[in-house]
Design goal:
Largest interface: A-B, 32 and 16 residues
CATH topology of chain A: Aldehyde Oxidoreductase, domain 3
Oligomer: heterodimer
Number of strands of chain A: 7
Number of domains of chain A: 1
Helix content of chain B: 10-25%
CATH superfamily of chain B: Beta-grasp domain
Number of domains of chain B: 1
Radius of gyration of chain A: 16 Å
Strand order of the largest sheet of chain B: 2-1-5-3-4
CATH class of chain A: Alpha Beta
CATH topology of chain B: Ubiquitin-like (UB roll)
Helix content of chain A: 25-40%
CATH class of chain B: Alpha Beta
Largest sheet of chain B: 5 strands, mixed
Order of helices and strands of chain A: EHEEHEEEHE
Distance between the termini of chain A: 27 Å
Number of helices of chain B: 2
Shape of chain B: globular
């Protein structure tokens, strides 16, 4: 499952999408918007066709590199409030070491190469200009 | 020939549009197109060193030659995740 969506992410559905009988470990990562006095939400912008292509390629690389059996990544676009999950990544492997390693590597890659950008939306941020870029 | 230039995040805000139609001579490279865009929108110049370039959704080098109808994306440093 590779998706970019406005709607809240159904975590159970993401986990179910990687479950299989020969997988002894499933690692799930949730990237959540954390509270900060200046942040009420994060606004995500995406170059969707390239992001979907990049995500698909990095899942294939994770399978080759770590022996992951299945991997799903769902990222939100638009506004995600504090406490909301902006990305969910689930990885299934035969054993936990491969599942943890593949999950950590893939999430680093998501932040490094997938064309998604976020800006902070705070209490004093006008809707027309929703704040500085977040690294 | 004509190509579409896509701009995102900071670059879109600077230029004031997310998509531009750009007319080029045959044989123009991505790097030459970027130079032309920076010349027209000088506020982008300071961002040039960090710009990632993609053609038809694939990252390319500046010496890649463009073709009619290509979609060229000028990508700021990405910042996905939470």
């Amino acid at each position: 499952m590779i998706e970019i969506q406005r709607a809240r992410i159904d975590i159970k559905a993401v986990v179910s999408s990687v479950r299989r009988d020969d997988a002894g470990a499933i690692v799930v990562f949730l990237g959540s918007v954390r509270s900060d006095p200046e942040v009420q939400a994060l606004d995500y912008e995406v170059y969707k066709p390239m992001a979907l292509r990049t995500l698909t390629e990095l899942v294939e690389r994770a399978k080759e590199k770590f022996g992951a059996l299945e991997m799903s990544i769902v990222h939100r676009v638009g506004r995600v409030p504090v406490g909301g999950d902006s990305v969910v990544l689930a990885c299934a492997a035969a054993h936990r070491s491969e599942a943890f390693a593949a999950c950590a590597w893939a999430m680093d890659e998501v932040k490094r190469i997938v064309p998604i950008w976020k800006t902070e939306a705070g209490p004093r941020t006008p809707r027309s200009r929703r704040g500085r870029k977040v690294p | 020939m004509q190509v579409q230039v896509r701009l995102f995040a900071t670059y879109r805000e600077i230029v004031g549009a997310g998509q531009l139609a750009w007319t080029l001579r045959d044989g123009t490279t991505v790097g030459q197109l970027v130079e032309a865009v920076l010349a027209k929108y000088p506020r982008l110049v300071g961002h040039g060193n960090h710009m990632l370039l993609a053609v038809n959704h694939e990252v390319v080098r500046p010496d890649s030659v463009l073709m009619e109808g290509d979609e060229v994306a000028l990508l700021p440093p990405v910042s996905g995740g939470a």
